[in-house]
Backbone:
């Protein structure tokens, strides 16, 4: 899969702190690896958060292996990198097919009810349906946002309308600003496992 703007994220060491600066045109830039002295810390991930994130959930590897064939099939059908789907599932649900978010997102890929309906999902808890619909949604978002993976992931997390409202930029929501680099980091780490 060829993805524009991916190389900068993959070449950088993973950090969860988010930095921002506003340029002369009023455009706010976000990164987890500041390359310009104008960046300042916007959100700092605590050591406790980092440690909690690094501890694998009990049984997660077993669940990941259990759903590996479904991930592989959905990735192939929708021309996505398996490592990307694995990263999204890990961050979204920790491979728990019964996961439900505070906002009502359901299943492995945490589909919102409207998204599940849009993609014809009859049982969002069914791993095959959930992964297939989530993969289709990711593919559609990649096309909509010109293969800009960080923007696509932000749209997956915050919703397409949030991206549009913020001028096709990653919205300054704390959850989204932490979500995007976390998925990107896992995506980079999962790639060698799949090749």
Residues:
């Amino acid at each position: 899969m060829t993805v524009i703007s991916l190389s900068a994220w993959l070449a950088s060491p993973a950090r969860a702190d988010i930095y921002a600066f506003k340029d002369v045109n009023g455009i706010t830039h976000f990164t987890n690896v500041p390359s310009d002295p104008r960046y300042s810390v916007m959100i700092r991930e605590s050591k406790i958060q980092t440690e909690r994130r690094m501890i694998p959930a009990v049984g997660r590897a077993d669940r990941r292996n259990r759903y590996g064939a479904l991930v592989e099939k959905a990735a192939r059908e929708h021309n996505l990198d398996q490592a990307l789907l694995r990263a999204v599932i890990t961050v979204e649900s920790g491979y728990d097919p019964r996961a439900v978010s505070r906002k009502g997102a359901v299943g492995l890929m945490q589909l919102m009810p409207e998204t599940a309906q849009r993609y014809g999902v009859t049982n969002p808890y069914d791993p095959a349906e959930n992964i297939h619909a989530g993969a289709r949604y990711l593919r559609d978002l990649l096309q909509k946002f010109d293969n800009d993976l960080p923007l696509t992931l932000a749209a997956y997390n915050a919703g397409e309308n949030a991206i549009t409202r913020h001028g096709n930029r990653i919205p300054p929501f704390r959850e989204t600003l932490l979500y995007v680099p976390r998925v990107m980091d896992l995506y980079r780490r999962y790639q060698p496992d799949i090749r």
In short: The chain has a mean pLDDT of 82.
